[in-house]
């Protein structure tokens, strides 16, 4: 197969077995406790009959829901098995075609080596390593500096984009708190290609049936897939919603297919975000144009913050990935407003004239302002969308990406993949300490965030000392973060009376932005409360970049070192002369709180 195509029948079958096991476990879990229910009246008497009836109804509903979810996992398993068979069939067919084309050929199918089709294959055939989870990049990378493969005895700690005094990309990285050799040089900055968000939907020159990639990042130069397309879970959910829709809320005659598409995605996101932050709202828009269909998702926190554990279809994009096209400050006025639908409407108004696209559907978990509906006469609009459990976005699949895979650059993804298992926790700790220190030096701490900042400082000090953190400290930090989230409600702005396209940067936006930065610092620290793995590191890099890559975040400028004059009188007493090192080279280790 082509070098850029990361599909392996063995990997597909492994995932199929995972889904099959999940189906069996879900079906077993959903079975009602029949013996206990049968003995309920005998144990509690007829006076408890209403309770028994309610329990029967509950367990019956749970069984139906569990069986429905189990059926979905079983269907996914069957589809993966079918795709694996199709892949092998295409390989065999291609081999027979080559064999019959004339001339001598090798006795077996020819595989592409690591560097391309012309590279030799190791003795014994191509080597298939450990499976790579969806949303992750392959960790079997070569050190870009030395060319040597990483080894467990010498953990690789790549560049992660320190905020400790760097003003931009390419700065000279220094040692960060938490260990020697962990450097940061702004490697994660950059803007993804806007064309990555293109969808292939029916009527737009393609379909939603791509099986996706396994390495958690998009690729713009992959050759066309020569295997039969496999319907993704997202596409199946959209198709099922279209089939079962008997009544659709069509506004101003807009196309309801796009409305169903947007509503399906938003409902699945709301179902996956089981414990949303206070006041957090979500919206999804669909835009159509000559280039195809695009789907956009945003939240009302920061620059469309996405929570950990959410795996989104590769076709989804966010408005904040298009800064390079729209201008670095274009989205600054969208931060901190209460209506997520307004964010997407403003983005659509800015993007539409540039590529001749228009919003055809807009849905939100919050109410949608009547004036906004009037401003979108060609769109199907729906507010107060609730969670829908037909599509599970908490499970990584070949066609989905985690939040770093969706928004991160290829360089960032490769840097994360290069970190080996022994160094993962150190990487997470370094990112947390760097963000905590940089935000504290750069942004005035709001009064509402002081408690969380002090708790983070105590926890980081304890972790850097190699000690365990008491459970109470973790609980206190979560409580402080919840309070900060609630305090942000009064800082958000209602822009219902402002015309579409007329938003301007609010003078008080800096305070709300500082609160968002503090919450991301807390998120980084809380990622250290449990076991850490590759996914934890990916989530940490995403949270770190929500601060470091923010256009309005300007880290402290490094000052030149202050040295003694070349000539001067000899000092025979007093403290020895020292050189003041620039803070960029070594951000200070978080110090313990004073008594």
From TrEMBL:
- Protein name in UniProt: Uncharacterized protein
| Residue stretches of biased makeup (Polar residues) | 140-154
In terms of superkingdom, the source organism counts as Bacteria
Question: What Pfam families does the annotation carry?
Answer: T7SS_ESX_EspC
- The Pro residues compositionally biased stretches are 584-595
Q: Which InterPro entries match?
A: EspC (IPR022536)
**Chain positions covered by the region annotation Disordered:** 90-222, 571-595
Residue stretches of biased makeup (Gly residues): 162-181
GO annotations under biological process?
protein secretion
The signal sequence is none
Low complexity biased stretches: 121-132, 194-212, 571-583
Show the taxonomic lineage: Bacteria, Bacillati, Actinomycetota, Actinomycetes, Mycobacteriales
């Amino acid at each position: 197969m082509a070098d850029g195509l990361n599909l392996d029948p063995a990997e597909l079958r492994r995932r199929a077995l995972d889904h099959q096991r999940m189906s069996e476990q879900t079906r077993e879990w959903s079975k009602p406790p029949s013996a206990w229910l049968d003995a309920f009246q005998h144990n509690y008497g007829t006076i408890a009959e209403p309770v028994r009836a309610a329990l029967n109804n509950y367990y019956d509903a749970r069984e139906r829901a569990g069986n429905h979810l189990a059926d979905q996992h079983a269907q996914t398993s069957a589809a993966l098995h079918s795709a694996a068979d199709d892949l092998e069939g295409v390989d065999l067919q291609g081999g027979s075609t080559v064999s019959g084309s004339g001339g001598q050929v090798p006795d077996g199918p020819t595989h592409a080596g690591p560097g391309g089709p012309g590279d030799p294959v190791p003795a014994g055939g191509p080597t298939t390593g450990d499976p790579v989870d969806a949303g992750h990049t392959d960790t079997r990378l070569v050190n870009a500096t030395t060319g040597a493969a990483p080894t467990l005895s010498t953990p690789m700690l790549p560049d992660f984009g320190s905020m400790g005094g760097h003003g931009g990309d390419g700065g000279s990285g220094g040692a960060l708190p938490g260990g020697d050799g962990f450097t940061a040089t702004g490697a994660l900055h950059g803007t993804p290609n806007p064309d990555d968000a293109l969808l292939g939907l029916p009527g737009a020159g393609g379909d939603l049936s791509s099986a996706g990639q396994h390495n958690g990042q998009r690729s713009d130069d992959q050759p066309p897939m020569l295997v039969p397309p496999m319907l993704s879970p997202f596409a199946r959910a959209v198709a099922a919603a279209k089939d079962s829709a008997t009544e659709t809320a069509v506004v101003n005659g807009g196309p309801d297919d796009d409305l169903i598409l947007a509503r399906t995605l938003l409902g699945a996101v709301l179902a996956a975000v089981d414990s949303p932050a206070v006041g957090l709202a979500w919206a999804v828009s669909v835009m159509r144009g000559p280039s195809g269909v695009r789907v956009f998702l945003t939240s009302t926190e920061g620059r469309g913050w996405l929570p950990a554990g959410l795996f989104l279809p590769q076709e989804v994009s966010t408005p904040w990935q298009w800064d390079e096209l729209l201008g670095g400050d274009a989205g600054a006025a969208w931060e901190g407003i209460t209506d997520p639908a307004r964010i997407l409407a403003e983005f659509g108004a800015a993007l539409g004239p540039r590529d001749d696209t228009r919003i055809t559907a807009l849905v939100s978990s919050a109410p949608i302002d009547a004036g906004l509906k009037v401003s979108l006469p060609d769109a199907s609009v729906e507010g107060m969308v609730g969670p829908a459990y037909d599509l599970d976005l908490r499970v990584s699949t070949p066609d989905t990406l985690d939040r770093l895979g969706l928004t991160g650059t290829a360089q960032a993804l490769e840097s994360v993949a290069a970190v080996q298992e022994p160094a993962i926790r150190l990487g997470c700790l370094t990112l947390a300490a760097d963000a905590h220190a940089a935000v504290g030096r750069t942004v005035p701490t709001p009064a509402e965030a002081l408690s969380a900042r002090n708790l983070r400082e105590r926890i980081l000090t304890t972790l850097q000392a190699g000690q365990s953190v008491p459970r109470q400290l973790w609980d206190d930090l979560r409580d402080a973060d919840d309070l900060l989230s609630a305090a942000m409600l009064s800082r958000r702005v209602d822009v219902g009376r402002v015309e579409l396209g007329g938003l301007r940067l609010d003078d008080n936006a800096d305070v709300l932005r500082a609160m968002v930065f503090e919450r991301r610092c807390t998120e980084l620290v809380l990622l250290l409360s449990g076991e850490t793995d590759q996914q934890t590191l990916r989530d940490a890099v995403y949270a770190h970049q929500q601060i470091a890559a923010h256009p309005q975040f300007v880290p402290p400028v490094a000052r030149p070192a202050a040295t003694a004059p070349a000539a001067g009188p000899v000092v025979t007493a007093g403290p020895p002369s020292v050189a003041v090192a620039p803070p960029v080279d070594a951000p200070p280790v978080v110090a313990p709180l004073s008594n």
